[in-house]
Design brief:
Layout lengths: L8 H14 L12 H8 L3 H13 L3 E4 L3 E4 L3 H27 L4 H18 L2
Antiparallel strand pairs: 1-2
């Protein structure tokens, strides 16, 4: 995993978890890789991985069954979706809108580009 120096590593691991849950690679109720497995997978110290696990557990996204492992919470997908949507609307969209204004990109152009992107993804998945 390539890390960005502008964001703590454990939060980048959290983002990896969020993406895996949103992509349904780790469905609700399913066991996820252990702390050691994640640490090896992303090549970090296990203490960094456990920090990400603790964060996700505090958010209610995962839970621990003592002696068995960690699992995605029953409402983990919805929690992640809510977290990431809020982050997108509050942090990402303002930058996009600013650039649209600076570059004189109209909403119709953006809509056309979005529709083309979705169409391309649909064709890739078939």
């Amino acid at each position: 995993m390539d890390f960005d120096n502008s964001k703590p590593i454990y939060l980048q691991i959290v983002d990896f978890f969020y993406e895996s849950i949103l992509a349904r690679r780790w469905p609700e109720g399913e066991r996820i890789p252990s702390v050691r497995e994640v640490a090896m997978m992303v090549e970090v110290n296990p203490n960094t991985a456990i920090r990400a696990f603790n964060y996700l557990q505090d958010e209610g996204v995962i839970y621990n069954k003592r002696g068995i492992g960690y699992f995605v919470s029953e409402n983990g997908y919805k929690k992640v979706l809510d977290i990431k949507r809020k982050e997108f609307i509050e942090l990402t969209l303002p930058d996009v809108f600013k650039k649209m204004i600076l570059l004189d990109v109209k909403l119709e152009e953006m809509s056309n580009s979005y529709n083309q992107y979705v169409n391309d993804i649909d064709h890739e998945n078939k």
